[in-house]
Amino acid sequence: MNTTKKLTILSGALFFGWLGAQQAGAQTYPGKPVRIITAEAAGGNDFFARVLAQGLDATMGQRFIVENRGGAGGTIAANVVRTAAPDGYTLLFYGSAFYRTPILQNDMRWNPVTDFAPITLATRAPDVLIVNSALPVQSVKDLLALAKARPGQLNYGFTSVNTNGKLFEYMTGAKVVGVSYKGTGPAYVDLISGAIQYMFTNMASATAQVKSGRVRLIAIATMAPSPLLPDVPTVDAAVPGYESGIIYGFFGPVKTSPAIVAQLNKAVVETLRIPGIRKQILDSGAEPVGSTPEEFARVIEKEMAELTRLVKETDMKL
Q1: What is the DSSP string of 45-56?
Q2: Closest by alpha carbon to 158, among 176, 140, 172, 141?
Q3: Which residues contact residue 99 at a Cβ distance below 8 angstroms, ignoring those fewer than 6 apart?
Q4: Domain 9-124+246-313 -> CATH class
Q5: Model confidence over 66-79: pLDDT tens digits?
Q6: Beta-ladder partners of 66
Q7: Which fold has domain 126-237?
Q8: For the whole model, what pTM was predicted?
């Protein structure tokens, strides 16, 4: 046997040996507890991470332990996972702030799609559009007509980052005034009193105020009717393409093997179908989703591109 043939056989043996090791690793995964790194305790990241960890314990037959690493808009938690071994035992669960904050700070230290391994979009918490109950509007079209008739006279409230309000202004051309609040409590006080006329917010915080009759819910900021509010029209129906809210998902270190990513994806999607898990998510004002890694990456890339353009063309900043 000549040297060339020997090298060819050896190369083939090494390749199939490596492939076998990859498959064996995936088949035995997870062989020990898995860490889920997320934000500080008591927020949406923490809540959904713990709900899904509970389900994954049963789905994968191994413990999934949530570790809180809050601060710096997700940078601390992200760095823990970005520098971890790509073996599937250290995962990141985080919402949109994971990539929105760096864009708003003009400080993109990493890319969530190319510097991590997206696993699945797990849950979506859409915004709802609410108005002061005395405001003579019943729909998004009514609100836009009023804004056109009274340019610069309608105020809306926002907390933290004004992405939803600015996007609405940008897409509609409405001449309105954004008012910043330190929290939803003060914003609701002014909305109820009429100091501001409308607000985009999450459904969980809006529910009690809507039930009280002090504010009116006129739309949900999803692209299609939501199972959360199936009878409520979407903002998209009046403003095509408008969508706002927070998405949450799982990521691994960038070189995590495709076999382990696929196994985790399958497990999370199955967990999201468990009735008790679905109920906890829906009751919190969010939708269980479940997507392929490729779909998740496309959603993130699309939102990052839109947010980058919005920051560039408006005065929005963190």
Answers
A1: HHHHHHHHHHHH
A2: 176
A3: 111, 112, 300, 303, 304
A4: alpha beta
A5: 999 987 778 899 99
A6: 36
A7: D-Maltodextrin-Binding Protein; domain 2 (3.40.190)
A8: 0.86
